[in-house]
Amino acid sequence: MPVGRKEAFSIQLLQLLDAGLVWLAFWAASWFRTPIREVVPGGPEGPMSLSQMSWVLYIVVPFTPLALEFFQFYTRPRTKTALQAFSQLFKALLFMALAIGMMVVFAQLSGASRLILGMGGLLTFFVLLARDRLLHSYLRQQELKDYAKERIILAGSDEEIDNFLNGVDAETQGLWKIVARFNLSERPVDELYTLLKEGSVERVIFAVRDTEFGKVAEGVEACELQGVEAWIAAAFIRTQIARPTFDLVGRQPMLVLRSTPELSWELAMKAVLDRVGAFLMILITSPLWIIAIVGIRISSPGPVFFRQRRAGRYGKPFRMWKFRTMVPDAEALLAKTKEEHGNHMEGPVFKLDRDPRVFPFGAFLRRKSIDELPQLLNVLRGQMSLVGPRPLPLYEVDAFEKSEHRRRLSVKPGITCEWQAGGRNTITSFEQWVEMDLRYIDNWSLWLDIKILLRTVPAVLLGRGAN
Rounded to an integer, what distance in angstroms lies between the CA atom of residue 126 and that of residue 300? Predict the structure, then answer.
C-alpha cells in the first residue's frame, strides 16, 4: 500500500525505535540468564553471554522491524485494535523464529543459548506490544485535542471538496482541524489571506477539478506568500519560491508546493538538538538564573519573569518567557515612549536604544542577553527553537504591511537568528530583518543552525548589538 512521505518518515522512526527495543530485550534476557540458571534446578550450565551469540543480534535487530512492516504492524496505529496488534506481532515474531531456526539447521550456526533466545523473543513480544499500545493511546488522546490537530483549509467547490473527503480515510481526517471550506469560484482570494492569518493555518488542500485555473494560481500565491503549504490535486503550477514535490493523502496523489524546509532526518535532528541543547543550557546557566532572580527582586518591584503573547509558527499564539528588564507597567507606557522617543526600527517593529522603561539591572541583563534565558523553557515545550526568526508580539504581526512578511512565521521562532548573531543594533530596517529571516528559511540546513549558534556565543559574550 502506498503511503505519504510523512507517514513513511514516521514508520522509519518507529522501525529504528523497535530495533533498539529488540536489542534491549535480548540484552535483558542475557542479563537474567545467570540468576535463572542458579535458581532453576537442572537449568542450562556453562557461561554464555550475548556477545557469544552476536549472529542472532545481526538477524533479529535489523530484520524484525522489516518483518513487522511486512505484516502491517505499522499501519493504522490510531484505529488498530489490541487483537489486531497481537496477531500482527505474533506472525512477525513467529516468522523471525522460523528464520533463526533455519539458520541454525541449514547454516549450522551454533553457540546460541535457548534460554536467551526464548526469553529474548518473549520480552521482544511484550515490549513491542506495549510500545504499540502506548502509541495507540497517545494518538487517540491527541485526536481528541483540537490544538494538537493540523489546522487546514479545504479549497474548491462544495462538490469537489465532498468528493475529495470521500476518498480520504477516517483515520487521516481525524488528524485534521478543518478551519474552513473555501469555495474558490465564489469567494475572493482576499478572504483566503484573512483565513490563513486568523486561523493559524498550516496547510491548504486544493481539491480542484473544474475550478478556473487562474483562481487556483491566486490561491497558491496566497499560501506561498505566507509560507503555508499548498497541496494540489491538479496540474503542475509554476512558483517562484515554493518547491514542488508529490505526496499522498490517503491514496490520492497530490502536488505539494512547499516554501519551508521539507520533512527530513536533518529536520528531526534539529528537533533533538533543540530539546537536548535547551536542557543542557538550563543546567549550565542555572547560576545566571539565580543572579537574575535575586537582582530583579532587589532592583525593581514586581514579578521576576515577563510573559507576553507572541506569534509562533503559522502565527499561532504562545506565551514567551523572559526575565523582566523593564518597569512593571512597561507595556502601558509603550505608546507614550514611542511618542516621546520615536522608533529606531523602520516598520511595524518597535526598537529603541536606551529605552527609558529599562531599569539599570535590567540593562545589564539585556547587555549580556541573560534576559533571554527563560525562553529555553519555550524550546523545551516545543513552542520555539534554538535557531529561527525571532518571535514578535501579536500586535506587531497584525501591523505587517505586506503578506510576504508573514512567511517568516512558517517555521518555529527561535532564541537566536542571523539578526541576533550578526549584531542587532546595526540593522534598523524591518525589511532588511525580514530579508535575513527569509534567506535563512530558504537556505536552511542543520549546519547553518550550528554556525549561527557558534556565532551567537561571541556576540553574547561581547555584548555586541545588545541594548
Answer: 57
Grid cell at residue 432: 532588511
- Fold that domain 148-258 belongs to in CATH: Rossmann fold (3.40.50)
Q: Where are the domains of the chain?
A: 5-143, 148-258, 265-461
Handedness of CA 373, 377, 378, 384 (dihedral sign): positive
**pLDDT tier, 1 (very low <50, low <70, confident <90, very high otherwise):** low
CA distance 428 to 241: 26
- For residues 396 and 350, is the Cβ–Cβ distance under 8 A? yes
Query: Would the pLDDT of 300 be above 80?
Result: yes
Percent of the chain having pLDDT more than 70? 88
Distances (CA, A) of 83 to 86, 134, 138, 143, 231: 5, 15, 18, 21, 36
**Is the pLDDT confidence value at 246 over 80?**
no
> Residue 446 above 80 pLDDT?
yes
pTM reported for the whole predicted model: 0.73
219 closest CA partner among 202, 236, 209, 231: 231
Residue that the C-alpha cell 537442572 belongs to: 42
Instruction: State the cell numbers at 299.
Output: 532592583
Cβ atoms of 187 and 218 within 8 Å: the answer is no
Condensed to tens digits (0 to 9), the pLDDT of residues 429-441 reads 788 888 899 999 9
Alpha helices in 300-353 (DSSP H): 334-341
Which of 419-449 are b and which e, b meaning 16 or more Cβ less than 10 Å from the residue's Cβ? Answer: bbbbebeebeebeebbebbbebbeebebeeb
In this prediction, residue 107 carries a pLDDT of 52
**Mean pLDDT score across all residues of the chain:** 84
Q: What is the Cα–Cα distance from 162 to 147, expressed in whole angstroms?
A: 24
Burial group, residue 131, by CB count within 10 angstroms (0-12, 13-18, 19+): middle
The answer to whether the beta carbons of residues 102 and 94 sit under 8 Å apart is no
379-382 long-range contacts, CB within 8 A, separation 24+: 379/274, 379/275, 379/277, 379/278, 379/415, 380/275, 380/278, 380/279, 380/282, 382/275
Show the beta-strand stretches assigned E in 298-396.
Answer: 305-311, 317-323, 385-387
pLDDT bin (cut points 50, 70, 90) of residue 265 is confident
Confidence bin at 36 (pLDDT 50/70/90): low
